[in-house]
Write a structure and sequence with these properties.
Mean pLDDT: 87
Number of helices: 3
Number of strands: 7
Distance between the termini: 20 Å
Radius of gyration: 20 Å
Structural class: alpha+beta
Shape: flat
Largest sheet: 4 strands, mixed
Length: 151
């Protein structure tokens, strides 16, 4: 079940304030719990799973540092995005113009399909203020009132 609550946001296009649904996150699934859950569904031990996940993380970081994207089949893909300072000409854009890097994860089509609002197994519960745990970082609504957030 996905918990949500209503929060107010201002539309940056017209400064109109409306109420929008926002996910209230539950406790995160930590590495130990994830390895235990995977081990319950296959013949691989928790220690082997943890080693593979750790190696996967290291290899993703190395590939991203080499300027490559990483595609993990039906899971999705990772790539770097960059932000920087605007310069007056292309010639003035240098390494010093780069201000930050971020990792972007894009879910595969199969994962997106499995997580659609009307997908089987998806249900929602509106929480009261006293039930809240942690609210997702709100993104600004797009011009049609829907949210477009990055993962």
């Amino acid at each position: 079940m996905i918990n949500y609550k209503a929060i107010q946001r201002k539309n940056p296009l017209n400064d109109e304030v409306k109420w929008y649904p926002a996910i209230v996150l539950g406790n995160p699934v930590l590495l130990d719990e994830m390895t235990e859950l995977i081990a319950l569904n296959c013949t691989v031990t928790e220690h082997d799973i943890k080693a593979v996940l750790s190696a996967l993380q290291e290899q993703i970081v190395l590939a991203l540092k080499q300027g490559r994207s990483v595609r993990l089949g039906d899971l999705g893909s990772f790539r770097l995005t960059m932000s920087g300072r605007g310069e007056e000409s292309a010639e003035k854009v240098t390494e010093q113009s780069i201000e930050s890097l971020r990792v972007q994860f894009r879910a595969s089509g199969d994962m997106n399909d499995a997580l659609q609002v009307k997908a089987r197994g998806i249900s929602f519960h509106k929480v009261k203020e006293s039930e809240e745990e942690e609210t997702e970082t709100p993104s600004e609504p797009s011009d049609d009132g829907n949210e477009d957030g990055e993962l």
